[in-house]
Amino acid sequence: MPKRKPDYDIFIIGGGINGVSIARDAAGRGFKVGLCEKGDFASKTSSASTKLIHGGLRYLEFYEFKMVREALKEREVLMDIAPHIIYPMHFILPHVPSMRPKWMIYIGLFLYDHLARRKTLKASKLLSLKHHPHQGLSKDYTHGFEYADCWVEDARFVILNAMDAQDRGADLFRDIEFIKAEPDTDNPQLWCIHLGDKKLYTRYLVNATGAHMNSVGQSIGNQDYKPRQLRLVQGSHIVVRSLFDSTQSLILQMSDERIIFMIPYEKNYTLIGTTDTDITEEGPEAARLRKQEIVYLIEGANQYLPESKKISEKDIVWTYSGIRPLVDEDDLDPQTLSRDYELQHIGDDERPQLLTVYGGKLTTSRYLAEEAVNQMAARLNKEMKAWTTGAHLPGGDFNPSERDQILRAYQSRYAFIDESIIERLFTAYGTRLEHMLEDCQTPDECGESFGGGVYQCELDYAIENEWVRTGEDFLYRRSKLGLHLTDEQKKKIDQYISQYIRKKSQ
Asked: What is the pLDDT of residue 332?
């Protein structure tokens, strides 16, 4: 009797940035790929970042030169493949002589400028804050440094990778929980995966579940699996009404040698973060803003803000928290733990194979996926060429240097819609907004208006193409419109999505 054949070459547990990036890369190489996520894609840590594609300037102090160089190279790659959601942002670092001397910052920024080739971003420079003041800074700060990194809408970055994975043949399952996996009794080279009431079979299994990787690993029947010791470190952010009009962000040095960012956010707000809070004893479901984090971020920001702009807890309009699963290293402080990633393989030609992904960052997710698929392909004895370096994500098929020109062209083409709405749609969907608006020549043809610039055609597109199932999916992950709309508008959107999903399932 012939042995059972697999449903998949590679099956991935986890719908965060690492999972969907691996799915995209593997599907594009011709592997049969499946992925499951127990909730919504990017519903945990991958939507709770500081929204930056960056090398990590502060990691140079911890001699993480290789990781920073790799991240800086990836920054250039990602700007090219997703220029609608990833674009330059400039930062001002006010100089505080008692924290870091000028020469140390000079050296750090010189390395940051030259560890990898820059095509678009400008080199760093010294600033006189007397002659070029920043509205978010007290006049006590007279000198600073300016450098460039990139902004990203993190949850959309995940969704676009997921969309491209599906377009290339991957099967993606949301709202389906992984129960367990065990070697198949019929064919010991395969994993038998239990997903709810389903059984699926795969040659390679990937555990990309972030903070849950060790608990998920315990549900994978492999005696050789020896999980690394994890340190669960929470990063929290607060959002307040705009503290300055400038498009330049601030990177602020704290007395504990950490840094926090103050970033213009969603045009009307300022984003402040992040923290490094140990929560190992509480477990991976414990992501929530703590009182001490609120105090830390407010006091940190107020050290630099002018008196008229100082904030308090009552100014907070929104918060979010995410948990970084870092590989534990002795008794290091959370901020000094490496943000680099590790790939752990188990299995061989005679047994089903398992890859566990430890760590990683948004910035290096594409490279991590490429390395992971390279290694899996070699272990599966398949030669398949890497391809993602220059491959655009959905909506990003244009030259970054032409971004403004393309936006103006869309605003002219869809002049029946307010220019600010077209700008938002382009920043979110890029050239895919043509699919959304292809049959529209008047506002009425865009369908029902839900207020705040949201039309029915956008909701339909998000449900049909981006796995939106609830109002929260659309309002706080596919977008941040939840910050701008009234409670009544948000309720209408949630009801519409529920009705659409209900009709679709009938």
From this structure: 62
